[in-house]
Design brief:
Layout lengths: L1 H19 L5 H29 L7 H29 L6
Helix pairs in contact: 1-2, 2-3
């Protein structure tokens, strides 16, 4: 439970950092990128607890469940930009 609370707090900090990205200068953008990546490391143990707490996965299958979760996240990170590549021009938005 302690890990989940810590993971939630770092997720909130990462979210706050993401909101600052569009309104800041380039040097601060580098700092925000590093900070968001660093905070991800603090929430990773909480991600390992999610499968056992949510779907009652046995402890010997936690590695497989976490691997599946990370694979789905990576596939989403690949597919979503491809989908937005089609949606954005169709909605009338251009680059720049």
């Amino acid at each position: 439970m302690q890990e989940a609370v810590r993971g939630r707090a770092t997720a909130d900090l990462r979210g706050g950092g993401l909101f600052l990205i569009p309104v800041r200068s380039a040097p601060l953008l580098w700092f925000l990128s590093a900070a968001i990546g660093f905070l991800f490391l603090f929430s990773f143990p909480a991600r390992l607890c999610v499968p056992s707490g949510v779907s009652r996965v046995d402890s010997e299958h936690i590695g497989t469940a976490v691997g599946l979760m990370l694979t789905l996240a990576a596939v989403g990170g690949f597919v979503v930009p491809l989908v937005f590549e089609k949606i954005v021009p169709a909605a009338g938005y251009g680059a720049g």
